[in-house]
């Protein structure tokens, strides 16, 4: 229903039967993968690689995911108060060259390179940042003299073996906003993405050491509500920062999979999670969705279906009913392949994908993490390529972010399989897609990066069949669509 309404909203109906329907499988589907840089989980494979090896690894990674049918990369660019790109605010990440603050040599900008290569393949690039983690391991992490923990040690709290930005300090909010503003203003990213690390996961018998901050700035709130208010504030501020800097950039959050257990809140899910967003991480995701501070949510539902404490089906159904009209993508724990009986089952990920597609308010999937696909665990790469992601998908739009309407392209037939495209819209066309209509349903045959003036179906691998009708659609920066144009 959301996608149909968004289509109406931006006014690109040609006539009702000529448009893809929400019921059509795979027409609109987000297909993403997380690429973690912290501890060199996914990229680069180790610290200190040459520029050429870093680039070669990233291109191979992209090509693998493109082959698997993915249309987005969620790339970690700020793992621990550092940067995978040149920044005047935070030092180079140690996960690049092995020492924090050390740039690639000879110099290049890894982030600019990654964005360009991702967009070249017609995929979205979501820049993933960690808002509060400052030092991954206080005993062994490389920390540069220019790191913010050295310049403003009073902003930080140590908990377990990590050091965190103090979420209760306005100075921390201001710094984080500066980092995001810099990122959004300088790079052609499609989204800013944050994961589940707000207040840290509880350590048994240890209290997070923010009592002094609370006492001096409690704002009339109890401690739990004060912590939630701190997270609310930074999310609201970041939304405003992104909107004022580049209003077309999305803001997404991938929280822990359970908001609250039903045993403590009737609005919660029928789960028995040991920790939850609201009560332990102090992240009130539902409030952020309701207020419109975030554009999409990707709950990390890393349990298998039938799990006795947190059943996959129960949780995805709960989120589908609580997304407040924003885009909902399910986070899949593909890294768990083989970890228990449920995840040894080759049918687990296919089951999860099929279930996602039955939900009316759910728009796709993101997988954690990239390296889990390297070994084709449980044959899941094959499943994606041959079955579930065999055809490409259009990225779901977000009508509240759309900055302009698309002009309908003009198509002229040159021969049986060749067409020319002319478009008065000289800027803002990101891609073109060819759709095939079979009776009353559609498939996406191919998505082509703009600009292009000609289409040769043979060269694109499309064999026309007179039983079907073929259509061209132009796609804008915010994934908005033009009217469909028939390819006679």
Describe this structure in words.
This protein is globular. Helix 2 packs parallel to helix 4 (110-120), helix 6 (170-186) packs parallel to helix 8 (223-245) and helix 13 (348-356) packs parallel to helix 14. It is built from 14 helices and 19 strands. With 488 residues, the protein is an alpha/beta fold. It has two domains: 29-393, Alpha-Beta Barrel (TIM Barrel), CATH 3.20.20.80; 402-486, Immunoglobulins (Immunoglobulin-like). The chain has helices at 2-9, 51-67, 94-97, 110-120, 148-151, 170-186, 211-216, 223-245, 277-281, 285-291, 312-320, 341-344, 348-356, 380-388, and strands at 30-35, 72-78, 124-129, 133-135, 156-159, 162-165, 191-194, 250-253, 296-297, 300-301, 327-332, 364-367, 410-415, 418-422, 429-438, 441-449, 454-456, 469-476, 485-486. Strands 1-2-3-7-8-9-11-12 form an eight-stranded parallel barrel. Strands 16-15-18-19 form a four-stranded antiparallel β-sheet, with no helix packed on it.
Task: Examine the coordinates and then state which fold CATH places here, giving the name of the CATH topology of the largest domain.
Answer: TIM Barrel
Judged by helices, strands and strand pairing, the structural class is alpha/beta
Query: What is the tally of beta strands?
Result: 19
CATH H-level superfamily title of the largest domain: Glycosidases
Outline the secondary-structure elements:
Elements: H1 2-9, E1 30-35, H2 51-67, E2 72-78, H3 94-97, H4 110-120, E3 124-129, E4 133-135, H5 148-151, E5 156-159, E6 162-165, H6 170-186, E7 191-194, H7 211-216, H8 223-245, E8 250-253, H9 277-281, H10 285-291, E9 296-297, E10 300-301, H11 312-320, E11 327-332, H12 341-344, H13 348-356, E12 364-367, H14 380-388, E13 410-415, E14 418-422, E15 429-438, E16 441-449, E17 454-456, E18 469-476, E19 485-486
Parallel strand pairs: 1-2, 1-12, 2-3, 3-7, 7-8, 8-9, 9-11, 10-11, 11-12
Antiparallel strand pairs: 4-6, 5-6, 13-14, 14-17, 15-16, 15-18, 18-19
């Amino acid at each position: 229903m959301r996608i149909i309404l968004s289509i109406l909203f931006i006014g690109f109906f040609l006539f009702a039967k000529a448009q893809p329907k929400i019921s059509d499988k795979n027409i609109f589907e987000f297909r993403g993968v997380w690429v973690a840089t912290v501890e060199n989980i996914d990229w680069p494979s180790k610290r200190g690689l040459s520029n050429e090896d870093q680039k070669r690894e990233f291109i191979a990674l992209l090509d693998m995911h493109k082959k698997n049918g993915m249309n987005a990369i969620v790339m970690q660019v700020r793992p621990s108060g550092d940067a995978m790109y040149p920044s005047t605010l935070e030092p180079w990440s140690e996960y690049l060259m092995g020492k924090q603050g050390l740039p690639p040599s000879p110099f290049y900008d890894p982030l600019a390179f990654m964005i360009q290569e991702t967009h070249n393949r017609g995929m979205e690039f979501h820049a993933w940042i960690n808002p509060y983690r400052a030092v991954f391991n206080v005993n062994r992490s490389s920390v540069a003299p220019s790191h913010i923990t050295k310049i403003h040690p009073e902003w930080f709290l140590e908990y377990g073996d990590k050091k965190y930005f103090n979420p209760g300090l306005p100075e921390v909010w201001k710094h984080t906003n500066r980092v995001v503003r810099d990122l959004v203003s300088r790079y052609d990213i499609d989204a800013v993405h944050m994961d589940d690390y707000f207040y840290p996961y509880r350590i048994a018998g240890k209290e997070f050491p923010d009592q002094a901050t609370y006492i001096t700035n409690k704002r009339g709130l109890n401690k739990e509500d004060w912590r939630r208010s701190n997270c609310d504030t930074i999310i609201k501020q970041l939304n405003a920062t992104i909107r004022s800097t580049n209003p077309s950039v999305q803001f997404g959050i991938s929280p822990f999979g359970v908001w609250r257990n039903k045993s403590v809140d009737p609005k919660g899910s029928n789960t028995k999670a040991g920790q939850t967003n609201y009560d332990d991480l102090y992240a009130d995701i539902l409030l952020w969705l309701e207020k419109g501070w975030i554009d999409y949510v990707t709950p990390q539902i890393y349990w298998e279906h039938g799990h006795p404490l947190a059943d996959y089906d129960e949780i995805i159904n709960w989120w589908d009913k609580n997304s407040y009209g924003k885009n909902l993508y399910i986070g899949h724990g593909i890294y768990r392949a083989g970890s228990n009986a449920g995840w040894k089952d080759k049918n687990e990920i296919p089951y999860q994908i099929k279930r996602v597609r039955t939900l009316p308010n759910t728009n796709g999937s993101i997988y954690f993490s990239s390296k889990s696909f390297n070994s084709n665990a449980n044959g899941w790469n094959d499943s994606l390529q041959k079955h579930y992601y065999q055809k490409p998908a259009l990225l779901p739009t977000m009508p509240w972010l759309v900055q302009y309407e698309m002009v309908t392209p003009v198509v002229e037939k040159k021969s049986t399989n060749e067409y020319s495209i002319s478009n008065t819209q000289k800027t803002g066309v990101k891609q073109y897609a060819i759709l095939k209509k079979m009776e009353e349903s559609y498939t996406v045959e191919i998505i082509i990066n703009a600009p292009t003036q000609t289409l040769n179906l043979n060269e694109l691998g499309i064999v026309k069949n007179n039983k079907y009708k073929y259509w061209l659609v132009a796609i804008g920066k915010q994934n908005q669509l033009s009217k469909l144009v028939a390819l006679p």
